[in-house]
Amino acid sequence: MTALEKIGPQPTRLNGTVLYDWDYLVQEDRAHRLIYTDPAIFDAEMTNIFGGTWTYLAHESEIPHDNDFITRRLGLRPLIIVRDGEGQIRALYNRCTHRGTTLCRWEKGNSKSFQCPYHGWNFLNTGKLRGVPWPEGYAADLRDPKYNLAQVPRVESYRGFIFGTLNLDALPLAEHLGAITTVIDEWLDRNPGGKVVVCEANRFRYKGNWKLAYDNSCDGYHVAYSHRSLLETENRFAGENAKGMAYYRNSPDTQPMYMRYTGHGNHYKDKRPNLEKRPGGLWALESAHPGMEHYEAEFIRRYGERAFALLDLAGSEPVNINVFPNLSLLGNHIQVFEPVSVEETNATWYGTMVVDDGSLGAEATTDINALRMRTQEGFPNFGEVDDIANFEQIQRGLLALEDEWVYMNRGLGIPGRVITNADGTITAPATDEAFMREHFKEWKRLMQARPNLAIRREP
Ligand code: FES
Ligand SMILES: [Fe+2]
User: Fold this and answer.
1) Under DSSP, is residue 166 helix (H, G, I), strand (E, B) or coil?
2) From the CA of 219, which ligand is nearest?
3) Which pTM was predicted?
4) pLDDT in tens, 343-359
């Protein structure tokens, strides 16, 4: 690795990590309100979590060609995720080295270079300064690497998911992801060629801390209550067979679904055991949406025997896979949590499409994706709003200064309920808060650590 620059001590970072008693703030069964409301803790998270561990940045299918780019953030740092002219994926700081303005103001595009709108400095998409207007006005040597764009020193992909970290001591990505890759693989491998293409997004912003979304990502306890109207809507025309998330009604802990914690803050909720294992088993669960019967009849008319296996590809995979701190795969969506401030967060839902690997054919691929778009309009529009309302009301509730604790002790201390497996993963019933207790251990570990942070510049 070349041209690394160590990050020197900075007052808020040091204060953030040193002044707090993390063992007091996060206990086995409860967490203190300050971790959701204190701006100094948020500042410390922006280095120790978003920087100190691997964070999801983008999907390779969003920048499929050389010189494609997309703008994203790592914590609060504005980034340009680019595939340079040689195909290397980089995460450049979207910040001109001259006086710090946002360099690229486009959301995405294709470009070999970026020209700063302020004074016209021009950078190659490798981050190297290519030229400046009227260079004779500088005595300084502008070939000095310090004028090249900063970039995230470590960028790695796992099967198309691009992650970055500033921490030179972080484990290699695949090792860090560990056992969560098994279920990511399964999520991908049900698609032809084991691939998806990420498409456009439903964008939400809520007035609440980013962790409220992650605390909810594997929460099977709230579904029957928070999403009651959605469950009722999904089942209004359902007849005998329950649709959508109906398995959360009555007694969810006696259903075959479960949650599993796999380490490093990652967990998943597996609702697939609730399905009937047959072609069309997933589709049978899909809740009603306009035009559905017509689509189904058309699939059967066109594809005969194959129709139900194809319809399953349009159906939402009943699993929530959560990769700490900011990525969830749910149904066929990719959801990304992006902190904006201690009390503001973007929660973006990206749709995914199947690609033809030769086994599908162009017509079936188009038909599946058209139907997939319809099914993917469901939860973000009808479910996410319920969750966001809760997150905002929690942030408000936490303004009650003297009532200091939030509890996450459901399932704790009941013999035989939470099981540690031979491989170190932890399994618990669907409504258990074991996932939250475990990801807070990882959060606390990271907040107490002194990560070895650096940026890189092209030499
Ligand atoms: S701030 Fe970019 S060229 Fe001046
Ligand atoms: Fe929810």
Assistant:
1) coil
2) 2
3) 0.95
4) 999 999 999 999 999 99
